[in-house]
Design a protein that fits this description.
single chain, alpha+beta, TolA/TonB C-terminal domain, 5 helices, about 20% strand, elongated, disordered N terminus, disordered C terminus
Length: about 160
């Protein structure tokens, strides 16, 4: 007799859950203690928090920081390269920026510049969960654009 679909789904779900628990229980440190992160080490997504992390002074202050501190790579400028680098990082409970992960970048020079900017960036106001500061992920685009873009050029010369 053929088993119903619900049986196979339940069995598969049970196997996945037990494998996950086994993997967590199997992770031990040098002295045999568990190395599974404690609840306070949780890094939340922006939708899991009550208040998102905020750059000090808001969006306009971040734009001013970028305008003042970014250095357009000379090779890229000479070649007319423009791009947007998207980076995901963690804003810790104390507001520090850690663990950058480049999501999208078209050139290593731009990647290096974004990583440099993250190192000198001031501390953020951390996200809040149940009224307490918590670590959270944040994704941010860094737009590298020369003053005269092809769209602007087209508008100036064709209209």
């Amino acid at each position: 007799m053929k088993a119903p679909l619900s049986y196979w789904i339940g069995t598969l779900l049970g196997l996945l859950l037990s494998a996950n628990l086994f993997a967590q229980q199997g992770a031990t440190g040098a002295k045999g203690e568990a190395t599974v992160p404690a609840a306070q080490d949780t890094v939340y997504s922006q939708v899991q928090v009550d208040r998102r992390a905020i750059y000090p002074g808001g969006t306009s202050a971040w734009e001013a920081f970028f305008a003042k501190n970014h250095k357009y790579p000379e090779v890229a400028k000479a070649s007319g390269l423009q791009t947007t680098v998207v980076v995901r990082f963690v804003i810790q409970k104390d507001g520090s920026v850690t663990d950058p992960e480049i999501i999208c970048s078209s050139h290593p020079l731009f990647t290096e510049e974004v990583l440099r900017l993250l190192k000198i960036m001031p501390k953020w106001k951390p996200a809040l969960k149940r009224g307490k500061p918590c670590a959270s992920y944040y994704k941010l685009p860094f737009i590298f654009q020369l003053k005269e873009t092809p769209v602007d050029w087209g508008m100036k010369h064709w209209n």
